# Entry
Amino acid sequence: MADVNSLFTSVAHILKHIKEVNESVISTSDTAFGDINQYFTETGTELPAHLLRALQMQDILRQQLNGSTEAINLINQSIAQYQMALKADSGLLEESLAKLDTKLQHTLTEAKAKKEAFAGETDNEDGNDVEFF
Amino acid sequence: MSQPIVMFVDDSETALASTKIATQNLPIDVKQYISAGDALADINAGIIPNLIITDLNMPVMNGLEFLAALRKLAATQKTPVLMLTTEKKDELKAEGKKLGLTGWIVKPFNPAQLKSAINRVLRLG
# Structure
């Protein structure tokens, strides 16, 4: 029992670390974007289309990392709930594991949907057509 | 003559900066909002936009909910609204169309295409 708990604690710590890396990358990327934006705003220089596209990629990257951070938060919440349940009644090991598994699968499904939702169409180098209704 | 007001709504400051850079040479009055609620507050305060360009995935009120709220207001019942988003699902586009959405642009946008869409809607010539 202690081993299972210890294993999940380690997983939670690893995920927390990945979350911190995500946040650090977002922050660094925001700073870089801010500097570039400031230059173009102050100088009034017109930005070539491909550079503007690159700046938008930064935003897509940011959204994707935020999406994975949200998934990590949910996973860590589920693990914490599982550990609390076990602490209250160690006889519930199997039931708690089954519940945890269901929650983790749900989190994975949601995370994949977010990845799709935040992806945009970055493969189209000419830009995406405007669809009028 | 005053310039047409174009409201950009996106919870990402980076995205707002990108649209501002892309439209800086257009004869429009750009107003930027970090949430749909902020934009609605300005509309309720009497700032009536000629065009609204909004993101879809935003916390509290998403782009489609925002669109539904706009259609309930007399001032923006018929205001053209473009969705500028990373989403490309047909069911979301259909939902937008049902609510009276004008058009859909998938990110990353091409600045020339964005400017052309704004020109087309506002007939800037």
